[in-house]
Amino acid sequence: MIRRTLLPSLVALVTLAGLAACSADSTAADEGVTAEAQPVGWEKVAGTDECACSDGSEFHYWLHEGDPTKVAFVLEGGGACFSAETCGTEDSTSKQNLARDLADEPGFVSRGGTPVPATDGLVDVADPDNPLAGYSVVYVPYCTGDLHLGDTTHDYGDGVVVQHKGRVNATTALEGMAREFPDAEQVVVLGFSAGSAGAPLYGGLAHDLLPDADITVLADASGAYPGDEAITGAIGALWGIAGALPAWPEAAGQPATAWSLPGLLVQAGRHVPGITLATIDTAEDETQRRFTDRIGFADTPLPELIDRNARFVEAGGVEVSSWVGPGTQHVSTAEDDVLYGSEVEGTRLVDWIADLLAGEHVPDVRCEDCD
């Protein structure tokens, strides 16, 4: 029942992989939205007893009831940790709890120590120009340092014990979504930064719970991260990922390293016939750029790394659509100015997303002048 209340290169990968948390003028109308988006009210939903943030404190998620047949499942970003230093209180590279989040709606500390709402961009379902206008929303805060993938308690030494329960927390929210909206016909799994890394997994899990729904995954700001087996294995062991992987028949007999970040797209695509998968990035994403520089790819443009991952996914028999816009922005769909202002060769990002959600074939988009 839903309970409501109103290693140098390894270090570089995990620290930077999770950091950060992002047509015509009548996009929504053009895509068939016939009713005005309702005002967005949020309900705080308590997690189960098994849920926890990194420091053992309580987890909750947020629910907005709009159109019960259209639901957005949103995975928040906000860092990652993997050692006593990066998980410790003073020098943590990820959010450890939800104590400083906003009390009445999704939002977290991100600007000068001040919590700000996380309800702009695609999450602003009251905006009629939003391709998700009118949708119901389940918003999953992030406080476990594990890209929403972990399921273990890890003792890093020096008194640093971390509850890597991201998979438990997000799955609890996903199951709540399925109970609350059993007649959902369209489910969009939207991930920002750290949330985008795990988004394909939750696309597959959403299908398991709502098999008749059309599933779309929008993974924003993780498209350049590689599927290195050594790093996947090492991090997976710290976070307990292997023990929480779903028993999808398409993945039977495959090693845990097959569930790398680009590998998650392959697994979801193989498991869910007809799933729509898309990645959204910028050509000089400041967070992804720092990562690639530190592990030896300083001379390799991010679009090349993104294309390399796309080829890997498509070689696995899975189609993925990709947008690479100009600039250094990390997360393009969580803020109005980038979502509505980003345009490449005459195509606006918001229109590209609207066409994707409407079931149209969209071309891969690559900026030419990416500064």
In short:
By secondary structure, the protein is of the alpha/beta class. It has one domain: Alpha/Beta hydrolase fold, catalytic domain (Rossmann fold), CATH 3.40.50.1820. The protein has helices at 8-18, 27-30, 84-87, 166-180, 194-209, 229-239, 261-271, 286-294, 302-315, 336-341, 349-357, and strands at 3-5, 43-46, 60-64, 67-75, 107-111, 114-117, 135-140, 152-155, 161-164, 186-192, 214-220, 276-282, 321-325, 343-344, 347-348, 365-366.
Description:
- By secondary structure, the chain is of the alpha/beta class.
- The protein has a single domain, classed as 3-Layer(aba) Sandwich (Rossmann fold).
- It has helices spanning 8-18, 27-30, 84-87, 166-180, 194-209, 229-239, 261-271, 286-294, 302-315, 336-341, 349-357; strands at residues 3-5, 43-46, 60-64, 67-75, 107-111, 114-117, 135-140, 152-155, 161-164, 186-192, 214-220, 276-282, 321-325, 343-344, 347-348, 365-366.
- The strands form four sheets. A ten-stranded mixed sheet has the order 1-2-3-7-4-10-11-12-13-16, sandwiched between helices. The chain has a two-stranded antiparallel ribbon with strand order 5-6. It has a two-stranded antiparallel ribbon with strand order 8-9.
- A hairpin with a 2-residue loop joins strand 5 (107-111) and strand 6.
- Helix 5 (194-209) packs parallel to helix 7.
- 54% of the residues are buried.
- Residues 1-35 have low confidence and may be disordered.
